[in-house]
User: Fold CASTOR ACT domain-containing protein from Thecamonas trahens ATCC 50062.
Amino acid sequence: MAFGVARIDSSRVVCMTRTSAHDGLSLVLDEVSAVELQTKSPTAAAVVALDPCSWRLLAISEGSMGGNVCLSVASISAVLAGAGISIMVLSSYSGEYLLFPSETQDAVIAAIDESDLGATLHILPAHTVSGEALAVLAGLDMGAFAAPEAFSDTVSGRSPDRSSPRESLGHAHTLTFDTLTMARIGGIASSSLPVILAPLLDLFLFADASSDRPVLLSMFDVGGEVSILADTESASELEAAVEAAVGDKRARVVLRMWRGSWTPIRVAETLDLVETGVVASLAGPLADAGIHAMFYHSTFFTDYTIVRHDDIATAKTVLSARHHIPE
Assistant:
């Protein structure tokens, strides 16, 4: 897959996320792709910020779509926050996955064993993607595609500095519900990805080139299925592109989109990679309030909690007890 500043094998890109309303492009890559990104493009250093730490994937649950997703995320995030371990979470169409720094693996296993959660979790082996350990986080400056002369030396994103880990279980954040108002969630088999790849990349790179409309897009590829998270307008464009390519009847098989309305809740600040307890402070109160259908999505820049639109009023009430929600 040709992707801007470097050639990245699509089988080695675990997750791409773009939120044009606020951030650049967030990537989760295998280590080989990360090296290629740094060495094969003369402009990569100015465009891409790479976290020097490698991360491992842990499967929280599989086939949990529509089930008690929030309970799974809340339980494991609380356990690891209590152990002082920084985590990121990626919800997919078919399961929930957690990223943790590779050097904390022994501590993660110990915390899980002590909590009796081990029966529902498993850590993916080191040779999951193209024979290389997962994963490396990166943030891409979207100005790379529009104004090369304006490249900055660094890309603003989560701080990779782990010299002073911050354990902030009670730290309050500002949450925003505006701008990105609706989301759609879907899945497509990896074997069918060529059908949707061109329009998907168009949206990732150029969706807001001529307008100010906000874009929320994520493509997450694990286990032979690509999970897609998109704002309503982008999802409609993807569905139309698939229908044009394969016909209306087959399109419903190739691209499976949930029809429900979902609302993203964004942490308004840039988060540190070393900060602990962020996921627990969001997922925990929602689970306690009975909101069990939830998607959690971490990026290089910040975090998103995505709940059913019908649950937004309850979510605002329970989250405002700990976090700041502007009127």
About this structure: Residues 152 and 203 are 24 Å apart (CA to CA).
